[in-house]
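Re: that chain you flagged

S.,

Sorry for the slow reply, it's been a week of failed gels. I finally had a moment to sit down with the sequence you sent. For the record, here it is as I used it:
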Amino acid sequence: MAQNRNWILLRGLARGVGHWGSFVEKMRTRFPNDNIELLDLPGNGTRHKEKSPLKIADYVKDLRAHSQFVKNGETFNILSVSLGAMITVEWMREFPHEVKKSYLFCTSSSAHSPFYHRFYPMNFLRASRLLTATGDEALWEKTILEMVTNSHERREAEILSLMAFTKNNPMSMENVFRQLVAASKYQFPKEVPGEVSLFGSHGDRLVSPQCTLRIGETWGLKPTMHPWAGHDIPIDDPHWVLEHLL
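Prediction finished late last night. Pasting the structure tokens below so you have them in one place:
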């Protein structure tokens, strides 16, 4: 299918452009005529030395200043995960003329879900390992992947490249907490802000799949639910994601 779409890809909490793993390469192979722009959130990935904002709207302001599509006056789609999807929603709310369509994966809103659905309490002990994992990319990635993926095979296939990226782009716990503050305060608008496709997974062990379903109910949308993948669907089942971008 010959297409020429523009895409911005946004990662979530504590994840950078290198944490897409092989997904981006697969996406470029699947859609060779599309243009893909990878943006790191301030404080994440290649921008790990910067301080993360405390408000979702400030991420939008920052990312717009870094997007070549915005600078060129071009419209684009956004594919985003978790915190990145919250930023996408605010982007669409503030600048609806820029975003043609968004594909939102495994996100949540404080207006629709209680905190214990937005982050399952069973993960607190495991997440606490990250407090001592700074500088230990193996422990950092192993801890995160155990929480956000369900496929052992996919974890093993991706972990070395993810560790290498984390080693060169270490995340600070200060920025993790700042991003958590921004996410905890953000409320989705009552009306869908544009053309949106919602995705979640019944196998998500980090965030309740009810979060996606409740957003869908509020916006009058029927989310597409993966049957078994973890929170990071692009890692667990990249081909499933690509099939839903047609």
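What I noticed first: Strands lie at 6-10, 35-39, 76-81, 99-105, 196-201, 224-226.

Talk soon,
D.
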